[in-house]
Amino acid sequence: MKLFKLSILPLAILLISFACKKSATDTTTSTGTATVPEVYKKIYGASSISSDGTYLTIKTTGTPDHKSIYYATSNSLYENFSGTTFGGRTFAKNPNSIAAQTLTFKIPLNPAVSSNHASTPLGPIGISLNGVPFYNQYAGPNLPLTNEANSFDQYYGHPQQSGQYHYHVEPIYLTTVKATKSSLLGFLLDGFPVYGPMENGSLVTNAMLDAYHGHTAATTDYPNGIYHYHITDADPYINGSGFYGTAGTVTQ
Ligand SMILES: [Zn+2]
Ligand SMILES: [Zn+2]
Question: 32 falls in which pLDDT band (50, 70, 90)?
Fold first, then answer.
């Protein structure tokens, strides 16, 4: 026992110094470092957020901080689920399990409208407050969500084949537990913020939004007004026919 303790100590010191070195290199880029504006600190699930003054780099494991039937039964966040899920559908579990990811979002610090409004890709299109990625309104190329929405768990998310958990619709853990239905819920890859389904005490409908599923108005976080997306209860839910602005990148 004593021998074990003696031998593990230098290893621990080595690991700590290595970890410190690594984070120091991560935050020092060729363009230098810049302050991360307060609003992005609302992404409490991120493992790190840094800025080079042009782009924000947000890292996340993408695993939800709420319970899910898709966690391994040995995980403390595992919770069984049955019955009714999103839109009154009868829940049917998909065969996948939640696995930690290595996601790096690089999004513009000063989002700007684009002229071509590029289509959103399959896979992550943005990041929510708890670090879970947002996905678009498709289950696959030109495949509507209709047939997979019954696999959304108790908090309306589910994992895909490689275990990457995601939300295609309102993340109800965020809108009912961590924040509210009118709160900032995250950002899409183009840097524009995403809000919940309520605004000024009223439910936001698709008819109130443009083709990209947003509009320009003042919000609590942006009192001078900003273009923002709203998550609504009807398809296409988060984004419409493409990004309003020029999208950054996500690597995984
Ligand atoms: Zn999905
Ligand atoms: Zn709004």
Answer: low
At residue 155 the predicted structure's pLDDT band, cuts being 50, 70 and 90, is very high
Q: Residue 103 in contact with residue 124, Cβ under 8 Å?
A: yes
Tokens 């309003």 correspond to 244
Compute, in angstroms, the gap from residue 19 CA to the centroid of ligand 1.
Answer: 34
Q: From the CB of residue 3, how many other CB atoms can be counted at a distance below 10 Å?
A: 7
**Do 66 and 20 form a contact (C-beta atoms < 8 A)?**
no
Strands 193-195 and 226-230: parallel
Please name which ligand lies nearest the alpha carbon of 215.
2
R_g over Cα of the chain:
20
Q: What spacing in Å lies between the alpha carbon of 121 and ligand 2's midpoint?
A: 24
Contact present, 134 and 123 (Cβ < 8 Å): no
Q: Judge if pTM exceeds 0.90.
A: no
Long-range contacts at 198-206 (CB < 8 A, ≥ 24 apart):
199/230, 203/233, 204/230, 204/232, 205/232, 205/234, 206/232, 206/234, 206/236
CA distance 107 to 1: 49
Is the pLDDT reported for residue 72 higher than 70?
Answer: yes
